[in-house]
Amino acid sequence: MASERIVPLALPKSTKRCCELCGQAAHSECAQCKVTYWCSPEHERLDREGIHWRICEFLGGLRRPFSGVGTQQDRDLHREKQQQRKEHLLRLTLTEAQKLFNQDKFELSVPAAMQALKFGQDAFGLAHVALVTPYLLMGCASIGTGDLRQAESYLSQASWIIVKTPDCSPTLRSQLYRALGRLYHAKRNGPAALKLISDDIYHTSLASGPLSIAAAGGYQLLATVFAGDNLHDQARAAFRTVVQIWRAHFEGTNSSLDEAQECEAVQHLTHIISSPSCADTPLPNEAAYALAMLFHAAHNDEATQKWLARAREGAPESLLKDIERLAV
């Protein structure tokens, strides 16, 4: 995908082109969609790699004004289709942002979440509950990049919307508590982080059940905080719950995952395998077996065999039976 330099004198009078990421004056535009602008090669790279490659083909139709006159029915139909496109792109960009976050690609997750926020604002307004998840993702990705001040700003926006929404779902409340738990963990405030993560797990349990895959991220973060405080027994207990959640999911009748959930499972289980808290325990073997189950369900034979081989290394007899059953 190429870009073209913006020539200010060629623009209509009083027209300003702003960077997609920072809002500053733009100097280049996407040569394909013609409606996306960047202030620098670095911001262009981040936006393209983060999300633009997924949404470029849709942006022209959304951002250019409707030129047709037609009847009122034609205009109403156009507005309805535009709304459907915005909601579709909101879901797409959220999934991409979450996937990138789960892959620890925090710099790229931010642009994807920013686009989700824009689509949400265009579709539902500036204070709708649909904006909570984009703000939370932007906040968590900013924590990942080390920009805690920016993270606090994004999380404050999400918190404000939730406070203004009395009937907000337990799922969104749990996401807020988890994000705040990440923030306080990054600030090295263990007690506050543990309290918030506990609140996350409680609200996730209300919405989806205590051992749903939605709760796995809360237990994983809980284990990470315990491990950081050298509370290895507590960390192992939380990691064990994460493995149990994913194994139970893959053994169930509906074991399908979207892209973001698959990346989350891989992130959780590979972290457990390498965690010092889990050394000299069967947990790395069990996590490797769960990864083999994931890739077996995805029909990825090479990855399945790789993780089965890792699971066999020093595995207890009870797990070996499951390993050989999957290997057949």
Describe what this molecule looks like in 3D.
By secondary structure, the protein is mostly helical. Helices cover 70% and strands 2% of the residues. It has 13 helices and three strands; from the N terminus they run βββααααααααααααα. The chain has helices at 41-63, 72-102, 106-124, 132-145, 148-163, 170-186, 190-208, 213-228, 232-251, 259-274, 283-297, 301-312, 317-327; strands spanning 3-5, 28-30, 37-38. Helix 2 packs antiparallel against helix 3, helix 2 (72-102) packs parallel to helix 4 and helix 9 runs parallel beside helix 11. The longest helix has 31 residues, at 72-102. It is globular. The mean pLDDT is 93.
Unreliable stretches covering 5 or more consecutive residues:
none
- Tell me the major beta sheet: 3 strands, antiparallel
Query: How many distinct beta strands?
Result: 3
Return the average pLDDT rounded to an integer: 93
Helix content: 55-70%
Report the portion of residues in β strands: under 5%
- What does the oligomeric state look like here? single chain
Defining traits:
single chain; 328 residues; mainly alpha; 3-stranded antiparallel sheet; globular
Provide a short characterization of the protein structure:
Helices cover 70% and strands 2% of the residues.
Topology:
Layout: E1 3-5, E2 28-30, E3 37-38, H1 41-63, H2 72-102, H3 106-124, H4 132-145, H5 148-163, H6 170-186, H7 190-208, H8 213-228, H9 232-251, H10 259-274, H11 283-297, H12 301-312, H13 317-327
Antiparallel strand pairs: 1-2, 2-3
Helix pairs in contact: 1-2, 1-3, 2-3, 2-4, 2-10, 3-4, 4-5, 4-6, 5-6, 6-7, 6-8, 7-8, 8-9, 9-10, 9-11, 10-11, 11-12, 11-13, 12-13
